[in-house]
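Write out this protein's structure.
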Amino acid sequence: MQLNTPRIVPALDAPESIRRRNWRMLKDRLATYSMTLGGISVIIAIVLIFFYLLYVVYPLLVPASATRTADYALPAPDAGNTLFLDVDEKADLGVRFTHLGHVVFFNAKNGAVISDETLKLPSDVQITSYNANEENGLMLYGLSNGHVVLIQRHFRESFEGQRRVIKPEITYPLGDNPVVLDEKNQSLIALSLQRDSKSTTLTGITQDQRLIVANYQEKESFLEDDKTLERTASEIHLSEGSDIQFMVLDKNQENLYLANKHGQILQYNVKDKEKPLLMQTVPAFEKGQITTLKILTGGISLLVGNSEGKVSQWFPVRNEKNEQPLTHIRDFTSQNASIIQISTEQRRKGFVAADSEGKIGIYNSTAHRTLLVEKISDVSLKQLVISPRADNLLAEDVKGQIYLWKVHNEHPEVSWTALWGKVWYESYPKPDYIWQSSSASNDFEPKFSLTPLTFGTLKGALYAMLIAVPLAIFGGIYAAYFMSPKMRGIVKPSIEVMQAIPTVVLGFLAGLWLAPFLEKNLPGTFAVFLIIPLGVLLFAWLWHITPKRFTNWLPDGWHAAMLIPIVLILLAISFYLSAPLEQLLFDGDMRLWLNKVGITFDQRNALVVGFAMGVAVIPTIFSITEDAVFSVPKHLTTGSLALGATPWQTMTRVVILTASPGIFSAVMIGMGRAVGETMIVLMATGNTPVMDFNLFQGMRTLSANIAVEMPESEHNSTHYRVLFLAALVLFTFTFLVNTAAEVVRHRLRKRYGSL
């Protein structure tokens, strides 16, 4: 027989005990410092992420500014009065077109004359009108004999070594000789033009108030190299006293707008150049006279300035009768003096207005934003042009002084209204929330509304939580409180393993399998929510009335295992009944019936997202809920049962209340997961930024939008920074929700922690 040798425990003051104690304390301190360092590092990382997002977004908040670069006397004053100013892309070279037919190129920085060219005009005629197209560098002169001369300025860039050289040049697109516009040889008092690669359209008002519309097609001879002009023209006798002073033609050469000093705008359809049609006459202002008329970049909107300092934007809006009346959209009223001239930006929906007090106003039409009002002269301005890059202004006042200003205006499209409010965009029937960030043309009007993206984020999270929260919370409570330990040891790890499934896999399955399946079995999908609960209740009632000698064979805590085949059978019954239900209730096509009652149906919709994202969120909520319920001290439950409470009463009045902080945390963490989900909503929805709670329509979320468009955005562009703003909104929303959740959780813990 062997005797157990008693273990000798060293004394507390023995060297071995001291070494063990010191080693344990060292490990405790290392663990404490490691945890503290890790927590501080997480906080620092979050703060750095926030400030980096703010750093990228901050330029959107910087207001526009302008600084004077140079001012000097009018170059070549003997060449005549300036009819129109123009400037090259980098504001190195300026040009002024004069009433004597001179084209003076000069250094925009100091006014030094580079060249002075004279138009080829007959000696017995005078220039009586003009019209300029800044985008193409075209200048049209109207003559006293009814003829016109079209010229085009060019800034030819080249490099001599490493030095950039600009060589000015003038060409005659319609030929060197004046072209007939009015065959009756009446003096032209107003002009407009548009030109593309195929044709040139010119319109003019004659001295005797006739409207001439002429189209010139360039024809090349097959046998010779010369070109001929084929002219198609018509004329309209305007009413007596119409007194037309301004005229502009849209980019498509289809709509012609006339304006008189009485404040009326006349719209003609000139698509058929031989039969112009007067479409409408509208009053532009209640007070003041029209002083300038301009087409905004894109050729859709009309800008009208008046003598009261107001600039109004108009464009055609399609109504219920399929008509497109010219509609007043918005006003810009930051200037108080008469608007002398409007110059439009060539690549954005912005413009600059000059007034009679020497002030300029910089505006953006889409954002309905006044960016800057600056006084640049003590007297009235006469001419104004903004450079193609919209970063320089060249202006002339009535005293013949030229001013060059540098403009800093990087992100004019952004305003609170443009981001969060309804905006009336060009070609839209009414104001709306729209996200459409890019197009292949500079004529495009960017639409940066974050409202539909935020709405889509909340919509997706809402439907996912409606699916996930009941299943996860009730499942977690049942697993922790009612389920047998052995079965719990199988169920909980199995559900937690689901959390490791990549969301891209769930999105792939949702988009390619679940969405078509639900579309094919819509009635069965909704029948599931009725048949399964009723079926489970019926089975529970039958189990309850079954004699005990048949039910006692099943151990306590294993009842959920019996429900698995029942739920599967009920699920199969639901989808088996889908076709008969669809035939009975919806005449064989539920999707068509939905469309008839005004409910839009998309295959990849919020219902699909709810199921797919719910599956992704369930493991998180279930695991935290189950841990919270299982961690309720046993003496609380046993004490409640000992006092006569039933297990159900104990669960509802003791366990859930005690575990409520943890359950609430589970819901909030699950919601944070749903709000930030990217791949599932990207693959399982149509990814369309629409605002509709319709269960059968898709959405676009903030996170999915960032993932899709960030690779395509130009670095530091407005689009790029607005995407970072979307990330900042998502970050801030998550932070605020989590903070509020933490406050509520602490209050719940304080209230029920004493149970």
